[in-house]
Amino acid sequence: GIDAVRYGPAWYRTNPAPGRYDWSSVDDQMAWLREAGLHVIADLCHFGVPDWIDGFRDPALPVHLAAYAREFTRRYPWVRHFTPVNEIFVAANFSSMVGWWNECATGAESFAGTLGNVSVAHERAVAAILAERPSAIIVQAESFERFTPADSSPAAMEQAQFWNEARFTALDLTLGRAPAPTMSELLVRSGMTT
How many helices (H) and strands (E) would you count in the chain? Predict the structure, then answer.
């Protein structure tokens, strides 16, 4: 009974260099999905970027993701649903706060800068998709988390408050809402403008 699938081609394979695209690893799968009558939700950036991009914090990421989104949309004109970036909060947290993925950076300012940059990349990709396909439906996927303090100490309370504000920041930025004051200040300190 499944009639839709979220499918994420490997961006590093399909876009091996700036302005260069190789759809050979995707065309067969996309053709099968179309022939099977499945609605594809194209997951364009799922927790990683090609090696020629300097991770999620690269200032050029928004331009490159928008170009990739535009080319994907042109290549597969029958696709109507898109997730430009999967779980912006998780990607920024794991890449630039705890240092597990991509740039392996750590710290609150690094996290905020990456969160802001990936949110801008998401919005540029949305604009590129809609320029090619005005009827496209954007499916934003985010994790649902809630943080509770480990104890009643002021440090634990402050840490839980920080994360409960941070978890909504990508949605705030991509949906045009003002982030929480703590996150707004951190975003500005990390290089974003108000």
Answer: 8, 4
Q: What Rg, from alpha-carbon coordinates, does the chain have?
A: 18
Structure tokens, 160: 């839980």
Question: Is the whole model's pTM more than 0.90, yes or no?
Answer: yes
pLDDT 10s digits, 132-166: 999 999 999 999 899 999 999 999 999 999 999 99
Residue type for 129, please?
A: I
Quickly tell me which residue has 């108000």 as its tokens.
Answer: 194
The DSSP string of 153-182 is SHHHHHHHHHHHHHTTHHHHHHHT-PPPHH
With vertex at residue 31, the alpha carbon angle to CA 34 and CA 118, rounded to the nearest 5 degrees, is: 85
The predicted-structure confidence for 3-44, as pLDDT tens digits, reads as follows: 999 999 999 999 999 999 999 999 999 999 999 999 999 999
Q: Are 89 and 142 in contact (CB under 8 A)?
A: yes
> Helical H runs in 41-153?
61-75, 88-96, 108-132
- Within 39-135, strands assigned E span 39-43, 81-83
Q: Are 82 and 41 in contact (CB under 8 A)?
A: yes
The 8-class DSSP code of residue 38 comes to P
